[in-house]
């Protein structure tokens, strides 16, 4: 996915002089994950700016840049290292348009590598999407495929609203899973073409309108159609769910897999249609379960699909513990087995 | 464009202190004796018209503070953090800026906002509780009053930096813009202050940071806030120029800030100015200042009221007489009356504004929530036709209605 | 409630020399809400310390104090002004015990006035409990009654774990509602006496053990027994729910009201027993709904009480918008009418 | 106890700059020429035994850096941020502390931790990935290695402040404790650094802040990090003493840090020390330093290797000969061997540790989650008896097992 993200940044920098990248080590180094590789060389150190080491300062500076008409793309080096910028994010970035009666919008993209599974030492594997998703005024998106890495980042940068763009560290070196089935169609009523695993499945972008390969913010996609039960997931857990669906075939279960892609705005339509079709749902993410995004998903599915549910909506998530050290993280992360265990508990006997 | 001089990369075979830019500290350090004009020889040389203009604005600003405080007592203003005693800083900050410049005020800086041309009612919208920011930041080049302390300092840096980037791309469109960020003495303790100053210095951004050191952060005196020789001494730690000024000396404030702004404008980097002043009123109308400072202290500072000091100067130099003072008093009353009238005429806020500007386009969830509220209000209105007249069918927040007719008044300057 | 909080601090300072209060304006001023009134005079400015204006510094300093064996009680002046300390809270306070294998516990109480309804200008009325509740390693409690103001604060300070103590600004000047019915008994299996509206209803404290008037962390309380449906709430919304229950009587509905008091640890037992007893539930809080604590409550009730539910668990919350200006906040806050509307939608016809 | 001298409250009738404490800036400012001992007359006066001890520890520290780097190549260590080139700072920091003092290291400071007496395997636990902090902070008076940059500086302030508070209550129990916080040049840009320094100065806490200025924050050179004359100049902005030292001169580092620690210990307030040094290796084994710095630059600094400099000094003064060097090399190999042996013997981590120490008492939810994992692992073990041997019936994390037998070794000092 790193290549797709890099390409998206490069294309945006090329097409729009207002786009500026800034963050720690994004210049000569190309970022610790190399997502900004070569950008300073091509566009100069002013447009791909190595900042001092201070995340609140970075985001605060980006706010001022956006107020002057630029479209800053901020890189936070790791998820936990975005926390120093939390006040700037919650009290300013998320609220600026609202507090100025629509006058001052902040088209800032905040790229945050998140999640674990890469052997990172403490503070390098956090999943903080729940904090962002609960903050009105932010869009929160996360790609799970290479194509969406490109398409959603384009859309985020094109958006006139601030977007927290969560990059699953585990999938940085991924190519799209060959065994994933072709994208199933979205809920027909939604009216936009499904964005699939290839960049060709473009839907309407936000902000400055759609472009080739731009994935729509606010649209989930059914990665795998199924009739038995519906797995709802996003980001780093998509491959787990696809693998679980594959494995479940052996038990005669045909699992649908929904990739949310966008946590805010939330695509109720696609999710509810997919759940109603099966009557059973499991939500999967690696962040801690308590108060996680999975709670919101389970709650709203419960509200909206109550009479279609044959079993409670279950959650498979990280435990309610600080992220473990590398040697133990495998126990914490949702696994195919844990997903299948949850599916097995969906009251099939009734 | 060179953002910072990187030619000073480590002298590899030289002494190890070659790390980073080496520059002489001496020119960055403030004179620990604050700059004064009043009572010095420089006062005689000061432009008399400018001094009179400053004085006029101080008089109006003082009246504004009084009127706003009265409105809190009448319950027409939820809260008001008066800048009484700090008017020289407030007025000076606005006056040294050119139209292309930007102001980044703190929550106490309503008067700087008004002095830059915002209608009083709009500058007070936040404190009235009708909306968050009552003026259009782009129209006036003033960021919203910032309640989270020191956070807006980084915004000033980013904006000034962006303007330089744009100017470098297209020198013809160079605005030669300066951003002025206002913070209090207490706010200098926040990490955001530190980060903003450092970014400004590293980027060489044209920003002036004005610390209004009024001696207190709510109840906490400066001695418990910071142990530095002066707050202006912080500048050297960022490699920027630090200056100290008597913040109750309107002429000195104007001079030091003008110099600082031109320093930044000319590309010589940011400046940190500490103005030593005093808040004569309580923190806000809700505060009880007697809990943490003595009446004697306040009285001693009242003797150094910036208005009194400038008044005395003008009278001594024959630039003000009783007739002039009476005329000024009338203008001040006219301003107060206008504020009251604006309050009378101000419309109630529209609940539709709750949902209209969370995003450029409301999400489906927000549309549903807006519809729910709309239906509820409609039902309530049906039950009680004399009740709340609002319903949610419009785009909401009619900021034009708030700012229209504001153009001619131009804040304190045009109140005559 | 201010008096009860002040009394709790005073008693703790008296009883334990390790207890230290610190924060902005907690000294001579007694805090902007006067919760620390008189403490500096009685215990000296070192034990009730006016700090410089820097929230990360305050919390970071408190961490070091706790490492040396003190029990710091930190005051954050307003909810949104705790955000600068977010990194210290999430990356250190919440994780210290875990990351040191249990060696270094941090008995820090972080008092945060939260919520709206007091006419505060922007950034003065936020509700951020969801951020804290999603952070493993923190306890999160919030009193809704004067008695719990005293009892829970005592328990928080006595706890050997960090506690985010959320004080509903709206209830600072409250006395306990006279019209609330006597506390109904808790789920019998839980084994602890119910803490009622008076300070006499003490249960076991944590950490250093129970004391007179100390309320148990981790125990919800049924504030009103009822048979028709169950309102689940906490903090500032408790009075709304009690009033709604009162009003519902007119419609012949007998609503139970559960006051969570402790968001983490969560009292599944009491909540589930109360929901199972009625088969219908509405969750009420004033924070924005999306990803709020209400989502967690609805999700876990859905998981655990699925077969007892006659209707979906509904939520009445603040909208998904930045907190409104004072003149409009009444529309945003859950009201008796909104609660009753939700109750009316609990599919009574079926 | 007086936390800060508040007798300097505003001189009410005096000049307005009476706000806050007035103190002379001059004694706080660093000499922009870093302190050196090697190559100066002071070298001759330096205690020969101390110089030899420092040298011995530098040799061992260097070998430690090499061995750890080798372990990363063998995949036995997940990551290692080497301090090669910075050993004089690492060793100096540990040596100037007394037993009652506390050390607050950053993630790069494994060697300072080892030099203070922690077993290598325990100091490396974080980087091995077996647990977060492998040593008992209370046993060694060392906080966990801090990955979130600059955040631990405030912890040092709080701990030092608490110790003073306790000492004031009971002077007989006064430990006269100093806290030493280590940060990098990049970390000085964080707001946390600013806040910690300000708190230390206002509280008068006995803290020494040592900035190891190695010229880079990962790839970002100091010139893009800060424009100050030196980082030590930041001290004056807090009202504390700032000192600059050649961080590759082990004798100078020892001297300046000793002075700073005694300054703090004697109640004269905190000190900020900037040590100018260079990281000879990449940021970590995962980093590619050729992307941002030249081979020539590295070579130039290698000529100022702290080990080479001290070696030359000792040989010139007849304090080291080939036989002594050979003995040292043997001790270094012994250390390396011991590290490898400790790695061989280290047990696998126990999954029970995941839940055991989230709270003092696990919540019911955590107990349920632990039981779920335990059941799953038991089921897996039943399917595959040769698999993961862990189950979750214990209290978990047996830190004693990690630290036992570590007492006799005393880090670098006892490796002989
Ligand atoms: C981040 C943050 N923390 C705390 C507050 C609460 N608060 C509002 S004003 C104030 C004191 C500000 O003091 P100072 O910076 O000196 O400005 P002054 O009030 O004197 O103008 C405080 C603590 C805030 N607004 N923002
Ligand atoms: C708050 C925070 N932001 C970012 C990082 C990622 N990071 C780890 S090390 C590093 C550079 C540190 O530079 P410096 O302070 O000079 O220390 P050095 O690595 O040179 O020892 C960065 C940016 C972090 N660990 N913490
Ligand atoms: Mg002040
Ligand atoms: Mg460095």
Structure description:
The complex is a heterotetramer, with 2 copies of chain A (350 residues) and 2 copies of chain B (416 residues). Chain A contains 12 helices and 12 strands. By secondary structure, chain A is of the alpha/beta class. In chain A, the strands form 2 sheets. A 7-stranded mixed beta sheet of chain A has the order 2-1-3-4-6-5-10, sandwiched between helices. A 5-stranded mixed beta sheet of chain A has the order 7-9-8-11-12, with helices on both faces. Chain A is globular. Chain A starts with a helix and ends in a 6-residue tail after the last helix. Chain B is α/β, with parallel strands linked by helices and 416 residues long. Chain B has 2 domains: 26-284 and 293-345, 3-Layer(aba) Sandwich (Rossmann fold), CATH 3.40.50; 352-412, no CATH class. Chain B is globular. Chain B starts with 40 loop residues before the first helix and ends in a 13-residue tail after the last helix. The chains are: A alpha/beta (350), B alpha/beta (416). Chains in contact: A-B, A-C, A-D, B-C, B-D, C-D. One thiamine diphosphate sits between chains B (108, 147-149, 184-187, 214, 216-218, 279, 283) and C (24, 53, 77, 81, 84). The site of one magnesium ion has 6 residues of chain D, from strand 4.
CATH class of the largest domain in chain A: Alpha Beta
Major sheet of chain A, described briefly? 7 strands, mixed
CATH H-level homologous superfamily name of the largest domain in chain A: Thiamin diphosphate (ThDP)-binding fold, Pyr/PP domains
Question: Could you estimate the helical fraction of the residues of chain B in percent?
Answer: 40-55%
Architecture of the largest domain in chain B, CATH level 2?
3-Layer(aba) Sandwich
Low-confidence stretches of chain B: 1-17, 389-410
């Amino acid at each position: 996915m790193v290549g797709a993200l890099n390409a998206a940044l490069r294309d945006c920098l090329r097409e729009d002089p207002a786009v500026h990248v800034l963050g720690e080590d994004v210049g000569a180094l190309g970022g610790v994950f190399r997502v900004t590789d070569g950008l300073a060389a091509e566009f100069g150190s002013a447009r791909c700016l190595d900042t001092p080491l201070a995340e609140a300062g970075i985001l605060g500076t980006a706010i001022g840049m956006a107020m002057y008409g630029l479209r800053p793309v901020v890189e936070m080096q790791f998820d936990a290292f975005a926390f120093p910028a939390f006040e700037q994010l919650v009290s300013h970035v998320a609220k600026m348009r609202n507090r100025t009666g629509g006058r001052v919008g902040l088209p800032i993209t905040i790229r945050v590598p998140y999640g674990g599974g890469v052997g990172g030492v403490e503070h390098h594997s956090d999943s903080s999407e729940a904090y962002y998703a609960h903050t009105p005024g932010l869009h929160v998106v996360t790609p799970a495929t290479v194509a969406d890495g490109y398409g959603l980042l384009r859309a985020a940068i094109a958006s006139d609203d601030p977007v927290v763009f969560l990059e699953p560290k585990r999938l940085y070196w991924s190519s799209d899973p060959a065994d994933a089935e072709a994208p199933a169609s979205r809920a027909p009523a939604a009216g936009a073409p499904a964005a699939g695993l290839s960049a060709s499945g473009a839907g309407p972008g936000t902000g400055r309108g759609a472009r080739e390969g731009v994935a729509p913010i606010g649209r989930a996609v059914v990665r795998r159609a199924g009739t038995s039960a519906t797995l709802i997931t996003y980001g780093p857990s998509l491959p787990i769910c696809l693998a679980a669906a594959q494995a479940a075939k052996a038990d005669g279960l045909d699992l649908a897999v929904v990739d949310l892609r966008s946590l805010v705005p939330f695509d109720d339509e696609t999710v509810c249609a997919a759940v109603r079709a099966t009557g059973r749902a499991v939500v999967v993410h690696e962040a801690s379960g308590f108060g996680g995004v999975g709670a919101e998903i389970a709650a709203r599915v419960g509200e909206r699909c109550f009479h279609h549910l044959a079993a409670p909506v279950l959650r498979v998530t990280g435990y309610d513990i600080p992220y473990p050290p590398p040697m133990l993280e495998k126990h914490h992360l949702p696994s195919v087995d844990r997903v299948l265990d949850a599916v097995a508990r969906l009251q099939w006997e009734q | 464009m060179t953002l910072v001089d990187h030619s000073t990369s480590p002298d590899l075979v030289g002494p190890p202190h070659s790390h980073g830019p080496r520059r002489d500290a001496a020119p960055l350090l403030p004179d620990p004796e604050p700059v004064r004009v009043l009572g010095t020889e420089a006062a005689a040389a000061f432009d008399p018209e400018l001094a009179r203009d400053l004085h006029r604005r101080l008089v109006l600003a003082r009246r504004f503070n009084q009127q706003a405080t009265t409105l809190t007592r009448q319950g027409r203003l939820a809260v008001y953090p008066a800048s009484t005693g700090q008017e020289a800083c407030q007025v000076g900050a606005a006056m040294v800026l050119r139209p292309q410049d930007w102001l980044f005020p703190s929550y106490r800086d309503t008067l700087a906002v008004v002095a830059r041309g915002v209608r009083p009612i709009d500058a007070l919208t936040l404190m009235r509780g009708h909306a968050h920011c009552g003026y259009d930041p782009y129209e006036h080049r003033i960021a919203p009053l910032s309640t989270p302390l020191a956070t807006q300092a980084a915004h000033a840096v980013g904006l000034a930096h962006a303007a330089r980037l744009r100017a470098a791309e297209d020198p013809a469109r160079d605005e030669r813009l300066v951003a002025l960020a206002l913070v209090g003495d207490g706010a200098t303790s926040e990490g955001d202050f530190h980060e903003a100053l450092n970014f400004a210095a590293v980027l060489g951004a044209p920003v002036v940071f004005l610390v209004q050191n009024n001696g207190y952060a709510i109840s906490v005196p400066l001695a418990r806030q910071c142990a530095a020789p002066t707050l202006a001494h912080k500048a050297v730690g960022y490699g920027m120029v630090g200056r100290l000024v008597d913040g109750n000396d309107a002429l000195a404030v104007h001079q030091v800030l003008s110099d600082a702004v031109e320093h930044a404008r000319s590309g010589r980097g940011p400046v940190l100015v500490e103005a030593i002043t005093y808040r004569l009123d309580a923190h806000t109308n809700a505060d009880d200042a007697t809990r943490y400072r003595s009446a004697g202290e306040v009285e001693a500072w009242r003797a150094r009221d910036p208005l009194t000091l400038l008044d005395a100067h003008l009278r001594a130099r024959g630039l003000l007489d009783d007739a002039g003072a009476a005329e000024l008093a009338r203008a001040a009353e006219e301003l107060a009356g206008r504020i009251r009238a604006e309050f009378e005429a101000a419309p109630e806020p529209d609940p539709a504004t709750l949902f209209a500007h969370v995003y450029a386009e409301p999400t489906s969830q927000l549309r549903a929530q807006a519809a729910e509220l709309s239906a509820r209000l409609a039902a309530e209105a049906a039950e009680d036709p004399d009740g709340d007249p609002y319903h949610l069918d419009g785009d909401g927040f009619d900021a034009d209605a708030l700012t229209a007719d504001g153009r001619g008044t131009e804040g304190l300057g045009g109140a005559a």
